[in-house]
Amino acid sequence: MALKIYNTLTRSKEIFEPLTPGKVKMYVCGPTVYNYIHIGNARPFIFFDVVRRYLTAIGYEVSYVMNFTDVDDKLIRKSLETGMSVPELSDKFIEAFYEDVGGLGIREATVHPRVTENMQEIIQFIQGLTDSGYAYEKEGDVYFRTEKYPKYGELSHKNLEELQYGIRVEVDERKEDPRDFVLWKKAKPGEIKWSSPWGEGRPGWHIECSTMAKKYLGETLDIHGGGQDLQFPHHECERAQSEALNGQTFVKYWMHNGYININNEKMSKSLNNGIDVRDMLQMYRFQVIRFFMLSAHYRSPLNFSHEIMEHTGHSLERIDNCLADLRHRRKTAMDAVLRDHDRAFMEKIDQAMERFHEKMQEDFNTPDAITAVFDMVSEANLYLKSESIPHQALQHAMDAFKQIDDIFGILQGEEAELLDEEVEKLIAERIEARKNKNWARADEIRDQLTAKGIQLEDTQQGIRWRRKV
Fold this sequence. Notes:
Elements: E1 4-7, E2 12-15, E3 23-28, H1 39-57, E4 61-66, H2 73-82, H3 86-103, H4 119-131, E5 135-138, E6 141-144, E7 181-186, E8 201-203, H5 205-217, E9 221-227, H6 231-246, E10 251-257, E11 260-262, E12 265-266, H7 277-283, H8 286-293, E13 302-304, H9 306-332, H10 340-361, H11 366-383, H12 391-408, H13 421-435, H14 439-451, E14 454-459, E15 462-467
Parallel strand pairs: 3-4, 3-9, 9-10, 11-13
Antiparallel strand pairs: 1-2, 5-6, 6-7, 7-8, 11-12, 14-15
């Protein structure tokens, strides 16, 4: 098998061949830290976390950079609204970011650089573009000459004549060409600012990522990722200024995930239908949120609703219950000679794992990979009906589930099965009630536990319990 990635630039799947064998340099655009991250932010953060985990699982050493935009127009506006300084605001929401992504089971990047920590490098980058004629200064602002870079528009597949202003680029008659974009902004009175050869000001949006990518990963990256909304203008501009300065290909594989809709409507400020991650984590286990995000191919749109999340939770519960049953049987399993029946089961698990990897190698096709996981669940549930099961076969299946969880991060660990003291007492009391044939009290305790989200099963190996999703 060979990993294939859909490259936004070429609009085709390409066999993944990193610049350096065994190593991957990956950059993903991080948040502008003026507010809490929302469900739309969560999709790329979770998906590229899975990409990184998968690349690591198949043997690559991954250098993963995700930046913080800690100074821009939005932060300045929020600063004026709240009375907090821009650094105070960014510190607050960076701390919140770590809490929220940690709550989603997302691993920290190798480096999380801030714009404000790389200001001299940004100024040097812009100076290099002005020295080479790719940029020009007008009254304290610096702009990039798009016409001088003939490949501008290739990433977004737009003709230069068709290109419109980027989201954060204001119309300015001082531009030589209306398609030129800003690299350095002259500071307005009272704004946060830094000294530069063009006067006091701050960087434009696009230049920061080019600078930090170069500083931490080099002039050419293996993978650059982000949401579909960043394809133009942000990534288009990054590519232009990076290749203009460095004279080399900026990114080998461009990856972009699709949008999230809320109840079949596009998430937007005008509809006020966004959901913050921290609010989602109050409603759903993080594993359910991750499972939901992986339930559709990353390049496809994904629709969120509470009904869909409830269905997602029940689907994940099937996997959790299977894994919990395997753990439960393992407690009483003995080492024994494997029978043909046991070997056949282990082979079916291996075949399901092969299908899992085949689908992941096809441009990270997570929904089809999940189908392979449910194949494992079906085989395991059938096998668990056997009266005598050797420890080796159970461990083989559990090891396979662990491999999947190392990549997807969706399964409950054994520690999640620990009961709190109150529930333990109730279970012990129910056992005693059954011994005394006090069936009414035993049933009453079962109802109490059910209300607490604990389901009990009486098995030959003893009481089996699990949590509801």
